[in-house]
Design brief:
The chain has 257 residues and is an alpha+beta fold. The chain has 6 helices and 13 strands. The two termini are 35 Å apart.
């Protein structure tokens, strides 16, 4: 049962750093219009993250925390390393099972776990990972996005938000929901490519907090295939990680050969 339920979670773990990480300054006042422009909502969110300069400074670091699946009693330590958008690595140590690892090194996108073994991501699955981590994609810039459309209001955890539908140049469709009160991203969702087909994933940021003097999401919950996964971050080290942590595992190197 645990193995069957964990398989969908593997793709969730590969998307960890796609969440905007840092928020340093108060948000701007809410847009005056009852129907704000999607670009205004994104810009307000960027301001709440500390502006362009703060986003630029958040490209390196190490996040530590935990990954949990309450339905099956799993609570595992987790580490995410990132150095720009071309060097990403994550590791989750599942008690009694083994490690789930994933990463990006340049154009190589990979995953390795006790259930499917090592594999290189290809096609849409690979493209989505590369797209999700790029800072211009996080900014929702035209180089990655064809169109953004206001889709009304929604509510998560009792908080109202402006929902924005996004049409990506890659063909992917997703949505964001920006909190009306403080402008921060409250929830996001869309379909994730996986070996099991497209999986609908909804992420709700439950709590922002301060780590290393920076405000960031410290508690997020993801719903996929009827299962809940919980991500909690407890520490952030802004020092650039050593290149050694991004080195490809021998099993992945073998696949490249």
């Amino acid at each position: 049962m645990k193995t069957r339920l964990l398989r969908p979670a593997l793709m969730t773990l590969a998307l960890l750093a796609a969440l905007p990480l840092l928020a340093q300054t108060p948000a701007a006042a809410p847009p005056a219009s009852s129907k704000p422009e999607p670009r205004a909502l994104v810009d307000r969110h960027i301001k709440a993250l500390g502006g362009e300069e703060a986003i630029g400074k958040s490209q390196d670091g190490t996040l530590t925390g935990s990954f949990a699946m309450p339905a099956v009693g799993i609570n595992a330590p987790m580490t995410v390393w990132f150095k720009g958008h071309e060097k990403i690595a994550s590791k989750v140590e599942l008690p009694g099972v083994g490690a789930i690892q994933s990463g990006i090194l340049g154009e190589t996108v990979w995953m390795m776990d006790p259930f499917q073994g090592p594999r290189l991501l290809e096609g849409n699955e690979r493209a989505q990972q590369l797209e999700s981590y790029h800072p211009d994609a996080i900014r929702r810039l035209p180089s990655f996005v064809n169109a953004m459309t206001l889709a009304g209001e929604a509510e998560f955890d009792g908080k109202r938000c402006h929902k924005v539908d996004i049409q990506w140049k890659s063909g992917r469709q997703s949505w964001d929901c920006y909190a009306i009160d403080d402008g921060l991203l409250l929830a996001s969702g869309g379909k994730t490519n996986s070996p099991m087909g497209d999986i609908e994933v909804t992420t709700v940021i439950k709590q922002y907090g301060e780590l290393a003097g920076l405000k960031m999401p410290v508690h997020s919950e993801m719903q996929m295939m009827g299962q809940k996964q919980v991500l909690k971050f407890t520490a952030f080290d802004p020092a650039p990680p050593s290149d050694e942590v991004f080195a490809l595992p021998p099993a992945i190197q073998g696949l490249l050969k």
